[in-house]
Amino acid sequence: MFRRHGLRATAAACCATALLATPALAGSDGPGAPGAGDDYFPGYGNGGYDVSHYDIQLRYQPADDHLQGTTTIVAKPTQNLTAFDLDFALTTKSVRVNGLAAKFSQNGTELTVTPPKTLPEGSLATFVVEYEGVPSTVEVGGLKPWIRTSDGALAVGEPEISSWWFPGNDHPRDKATFDVAVTVPDGTELLSNGVNTRNSSLAGWTTWRWRTTKPTATYLAFMAAGQYETSTKTGAFGQPFVTAYSEKLGDFAGAAEASVERTPEVIEFLTGLLGEYPFEAQGGLVSSEGLNFALENQTRPTYSHLFFRYGANMSVVVHENAHQWFGDSVSVDTWRNIWLNEGFASYAEWLWSEQHGTGTAQELFDHYYASHPADDPFWQVLPGDPGPKNVFHKAVYDRGAMTLHALRNVVGDVALRDIVRTWVSQKRYSTGTIEEFIALAEQRSGKQLDELFKTWLFTKGKPPVGEATGVPASATHAAVAPPKAVAEIDRTHALLHGH
């Protein structure tokens, strides 16, 4: 993801809530926990059940940003469940559990539901929530992630956005498949994840239907309504390649199209490095307002027009599509592990540059290593444990990419490719931790890598030159002429970090 983000101010309050609740033991009756157990964001997600599918039915009016909907959640209790929480911020009108009316209460983004009967562990359960609201006016803990535009809206954000348009279990640990049907006034385009299965019109309104059949984290589900030029072509491997460009891009349109239309080429390149593309569709959406970041929405990254203000930008397209493997297919088990998303996506930019002759990965490593002196605060943020306020700090991206190149220097090209391809294959559609990745890297390479990872990910300060740290002597001074890729990467990362 490319962005600068203010994280949830209510984390401390959520933490207190989570600590007060004790999940029931398996086989006993009790409420599910109001959090998924994430150290950085204890109130995110919920315990007591596992979601397999979301069916989201919405009616959205861009003129006043009014949204009404019904979401059906298919889930399986992981304990005998007497009550459970959903993450949701809009006004709830009713809740039904297994077809029966259920009691509920709402506080911030916590929707607590008490079903009329205990839900047996392992049973099939359905939660049907009816709701409405004006998402752009809803603020919780200082957050208003819903983006209203002059012609519609963007439900795009990380780590929080889903609570502003559908109820769910909002943590990457609980992935599910999605059917999204949104009814909007005729002439308004509506984009979401996966494949557009069918559209229909009645009485001045059009319903757009989207389906994704691969496990998806809730924050990677998105909705974009507005005036877009849309197209569906054949992409890499014969898949649907869906693009949407705001009709208001103006002078940015050519550069945006010159970049995003190369997505199938990027996916083929990344597949050669990482293995099979994990999803059923591909594409991209470029907005013209309201957005100052890019996000790796599953199958369809969303880009701010600002990435194309200096011309075509392949760095951001490579970055967001690399996330389809790192972040989307293999997601973070907790948000502390964000390096597994951003470090790998950033290093993919370096590999693209190496492939296209605009700077080798070693040249880029040398440049960034030399450009940050030892006393630079950049070296004080730990990619392996950045803290909740620094989840999207530039060190997670740039020092994160440098970590992977240092690993390459220590284990070699063949071993690194084997490590990475094994990781995305073994962890496909699930989650992972940094510790699991380190263990795999040692197992596949046959090398002891404690010093390398401890130094790069978990130790403040500039890593020293040395064989064990993967820092060659050449990195101590910048090249006279930095690689051509640096200009584009730096412009992209400047927008990312708001510098």
TrEMBL record:
<keyword id="KW-0482">Metalloprotease</keyword>
<dbReference type="InterPro" id="IPR050344">
    <property type="entry name" value="Peptidase_M1_aminopeptidases"/>
</dbReference>
<keyword id="KW-0645">Protease</keyword>
<dbReference type="InterPro" id="IPR001930">
    <property type="entry name" value="Peptidase_M1"/>
</dbReference>
<dbReference type="InterPro" id="IPR045357">
    <property type="entry name" value="Aminopeptidase_N-like_N"/>
</dbReference>
<keyword id="KW-0732">Signal</keyword>
<dbReference type="Pfam" id="PF17900">
    <property type="entry name" value="Peptidase_M1_N"/>
</dbReference>
<dbReference type="GO" id="GO:0006508">
    <property type="term" value="P:proteolysis"/>
</dbReference>
<keyword id="KW-0378">Hydrolase</keyword>
<comment type="similarity">
    <text>Belongs to the peptidase M1 family.</text>
</comment>
<dbReference type="InterPro" id="IPR014782">
    <property type="entry name" value="Peptidase_M1_dom"/>
</dbReference>
<dbReference type="Pfam" id="PF01433">
    <property type="entry name" value="Peptidase_M1"/>
</dbReference>
<dbReference type="InterPro" id="IPR027268">
    <property type="entry name" value="Peptidase_M4/M1_CTD_sf"/>
</dbReference>
<feature type="signal peptide">
    <location>
        <begin position="1"/>
        <end position="26"/>
    </location>
</feature>
<dbReference type="GO" id="GO:0008270">
    <property type="term" value="F:zinc ion binding"/>
</dbReference>
<keyword id="KW-0031">Aminopeptidase</keyword>
<feature type="domain" description="Aminopeptidase N-like N-terminal">
    <location>
        <begin position="52"/>
        <end position="220"/>
    </location>
</feature>
<keyword id="KW-0479">Metal-binding</keyword>
<protein>
    <recommendedName>
        <fullName>Aminopeptidase N</fullName>
        <ecNumber>3.4.11.2</ecNumber>
    </recommendedName>
</protein>
<dbReference type="InterPro" id="IPR042097">
    <property type="entry name" value="Aminopeptidase_N-like_N_sf"/>
</dbReference>
<dbReference type="GO" id="GO:0016285">
    <property type="term" value="F:alanyl aminopeptidase activity"/>
</dbReference>
<dbReference type="GO" id="GO:0008237">
    <property type="term" value="F:metallopeptidase activity"/>
</dbReference>
<feature type="domain" description="Peptidase M1 membrane alanine aminopeptidase">
    <location>
        <begin position="312"/>
        <end position="456"/>
    </location>
</feature>
<keyword id="KW-0862">Zinc</keyword>
